């Protein structure tokens, strides 16, 4: 990556420095995949400063424009996650948050939902092992969940759930209906280590919970019919075109073998308490 401001490079290094590798020098390949134009701060008469607009490019394609560098780092990391997982078709890739409890995985599949990372982060902070905030890989043979060790990408409006992480608030929101903006809201990186845990896995699946966020609603579990669970799982598979009917057979087997429920969430904190209270009876210890 190249940047006009070394402080942005230091910010990215804070989040993913452990993944840094020495670049391979090849004159035939442009080594600068990402270019960050951080702009210049303007100082008005009287000393008032105007924060510059930053822009992030992949090659010649602009993928971010805004005034919060933390959001620009989040946008860059989201593309990392996409690139890292885009060709991992030896796995069934599922849009889901996931954590490890009792040596097995609680998988939470969902439609595009910006609050999923907050749920995964709160569970991790309360002692669960971290597997994924919005995407996990499932080994179809051993039925183990493989997570990522990248930071969580928390919606800017959810940072208040993590008061120990000091950040300037996110003020801008994308325009459009809730259905149009879900999944593409401004994200802020939250390192796993800042939650007092490390990445877990791979671990077998022990419980499948379908979270539905309904602000102001009562938080609680709802039983699901097997057919509904298989249908919602299939909707969350990102490479269904690769696995075709094999993925559906896997989903059917999983629904038959592990506990399944829907969790309606009015209060994320209450949802975390319900999940962790119920987990010991629903998630068997690994190897049992």
Ordered list of secondary-structure elements with their pairings:
Blueprint: E1 2-3, H1 6-16, E2 34-37, E3 42-43, E4 49-50, E5 54-58, E6 61-66, H2 69-86, E7 92-94, E8 96-101, E9 104-109, H3 116-125, E10 129-132, E11 136-138, E12 144-146, E13 152-155, H4 178-181, E14 187-190, E15 203-213, E16 220-222, H5 226-236, H6 240-243, H7 245-257, E17 259-265, H8 268-282
Parallel strand pairs: 1-2, 9-15, 15-17
Antiparallel strand pairs: 2-5, 3-4, 5-6, 7-11, 8-9, 8-10, 11-12, 12-15, 13-14, 16-17
Features:
single chain, 9-stranded mixed sheet, 8 helices, alpha+beta, 288 residues, globular
Can you offer a commentary on this structure?
The chain is an alpha+beta fold. Helix content is 30%, strand content 26%. The chain has eight helices and 17 strands. The strands form four sheets. Strands 7, 8, 9, 10, 11, 12, 15, 16 and 17 form a nine-stranded mixed β-sheet that branches. The protein has a four-stranded mixed β-sheet with strand order 1-2-5-6, covered by helices on one side. Strand 8 and strand 9 form a beta hairpin. Helix 3 packs across helix 8 and helix 5 crosses helix 7.
């Amino acid at each position: 990556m190249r940047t006009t401001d070394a402080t942005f490079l230091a910010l990215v290094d804070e989040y993913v420095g452990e993944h840094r590798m020495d670049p391979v020098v090849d004159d035939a390949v442009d080594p600068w995949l990402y270019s960050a134009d951080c702009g210049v701060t303007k100082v008005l008469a009287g000393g008032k400063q105007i924060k510059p607009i930053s822009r992030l490019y992949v090659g010649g394609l602009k993928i971010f424009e805004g005034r919060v560098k933390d959001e620009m780092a989040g946008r860059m990391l989201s593309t990392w996650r996409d690139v890292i997982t885009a060709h991992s078709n030896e796995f069934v890739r599922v849009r889901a948050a996931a954590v490890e409890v009792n040596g097995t995985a609680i998988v939470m599949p969902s439609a595009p939902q910006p609050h999923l990372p907050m749920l995964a982060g709160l569970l991790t902070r309360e002692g669960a092992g971290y597997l994924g905030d919005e995407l996990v890989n499932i080994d179809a043979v051993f039925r183990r969940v493989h997570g990522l060790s990248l930071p969580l990408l928390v919606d800017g409006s959810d940072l208040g759930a993590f008061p120990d992480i000091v950040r300037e608030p996110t003020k801008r929101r994308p325009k459009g209906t809730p259905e149009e903006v879900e999944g593409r809201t401004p994200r802020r990186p939250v390192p796993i280590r800042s939650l007092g845990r490390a990445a877990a896995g791979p671990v077998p699946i022990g419980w499948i919970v379908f979270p539905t966020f309904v602000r102001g609603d009562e938080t609680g579990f709802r039983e699901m019919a097997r057919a509904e669970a298989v249908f919602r799982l299939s909707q969350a598979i990102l490479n269904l075109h690769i696995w075709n009917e094999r993925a559906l057979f896997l989903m059917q087997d999983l629904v038959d073998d592990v506990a399944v429920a829907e969790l309606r969430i009015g209060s994320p904190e209450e949802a975390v308490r319900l999940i962790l209270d119920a987990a010991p009876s629903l998630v068997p210890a690994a190897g049992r």
